[in-house]
Each structure stands twice: as C-alpha cells, then as structure tokens.
Amino acid sequence: EINLQVKSLQTFYLKLTLICMLQVTFFPRTLYPPHISQRSSDEEDHGARSPPLEVSDEECLRDRVSYIPTGELGNKKKIRLYQFLLDLLRNGDMKDSIWWVDRDKGTFQFSSKHKEALAHRWGIQKGNRKKMTYQKMARALRNYGKTGEVKKIKKKLTYQFSDEVLGKSHLDRKAYI
C-alpha cells in the first residue's frame, strides 16, 4: 500500500519534470502535489482512505501545471521581479505591456492599458494565491530603489534598471516555469 503511494508520488514528480523541460511560460492554474493521506481515528474505524490524485498526461500538459515542490528538481532560487521584467523586455514578450524607452540606459515603461495583465502574469509566475495588481508590483519596484536594482523615473510608469542588473542579468537568466 505504501509502495503504491510512493509510486504515485514518483509518477507525479516525473510528470512535473517533463513539464519543466517544455519551459512553458504561462500557467492558468496551479496544482498542488498529492500528500500521502494519513488516517484519522474515525477513518481507521471505518477503513476509509482518501483516493490518490490521478492526473493523465494530457491533462497535465493541457493544464500546464506550474507547481514545483520545494527541494525538488534541483536547488532553484525564486525569480526576482527585476529579472522577470528584464527577460520580458529582452525576449519581446508582452511588448504591448512593457517596452524599452532607452535600452542602453536600461529605461523601460509600462503600458497604462495593459499593466494589470503584466502584473497578473507576475503573480502567476510567483505562484501567488491572491491576484497580483500593478499597484502591488509597483510597490516592489519602488522597494528596489532602496537596494539599487531598479529606480523610478519621474515620467509616468517609467523605471530604470541599474548598470549592475543590466550587466549581470544575462548570466542569471533562467527559464521561467
């Protein structure tokens, strides 16, 4: 019985690994891993158990699962907002939401119409349960001003990466899963 549960978990993590190899960039929902169910005293009396989570390959790929358990698939660092934005800018992803004002200086701007869509994507990337808004994301960007990675420019919805971020980010680029 325990061997079946272990095999179920191994299958689940193998599917996650395969999905990670696809390097999908947008995930509409998050799936949490099955936990080995523990019997309560009531369950022991009646012999009831929670059924294991079954996910077909097609469903797994269709839903584009973005959850990776802590400690699994290597020791990956969480991506930081400035890295996420810089990668979007360099790849041209979401160019209707964010674009370079002056690439050489590291200055970029958000679209007033599409900034919420970008913030929502950042929230999904982080794995947040609550909806990310532009207001919350902008607060994080302003906090970077204290540490020096990104500073706010006087022009509306415009920010600038530090020289350090622009210089080292190409070494730190990772696939965002």
UniProtKB/TrEMBL annotation:
<dbReference type="InterPro" id="IPR036388">
    <property type="entry name" value="WH-like_DNA-bd_sf"/>
</dbReference>
<dbReference type="GO" id="GO:0043565">
    <property type="term" value="F:sequence-specific DNA binding"/>
</dbReference>
<keyword id="KW-0238">DNA-binding</keyword>
<dbReference type="InterPro" id="IPR046328">
    <property type="entry name" value="ETS_fam"/>
</dbReference>
<dbReference type="Pfam" id="PF00178">
    <property type="entry name" value="Ets"/>
</dbReference>
<dbReference type="GO" id="GO:0030154">
    <property type="term" value="P:cell differentiation"/>
</dbReference>
<comment type="similarity">
    <text>Belongs to the ETS family.</text>
</comment>
<dbReference type="GO" id="GO:0005634">
    <property type="term" value="C:nucleus"/>
</dbReference>
<protein>
    <recommendedName>
        <fullName>ETS domain-containing protein</fullName>
    </recommendedName>
</protein>
<feature type="domain" description="ETS">
    <location>
        <begin position="79"/>
        <end position="162"/>
    </location>
</feature>
<dbReference type="GO" id="GO:0000981">
    <property type="term" value="F:DNA-binding transcription factor activity, RNA polymerase II-specific"/>
</dbReference>
<dbReference type="InterPro" id="IPR036390">
    <property type="entry name" value="WH_DNA-bd_sf"/>
</dbReference>
<dbReference type="InterPro" id="IPR000418">
    <property type="entry name" value="Ets_dom"/>
</dbReference>
<keyword id="KW-0539">Nucleus</keyword>
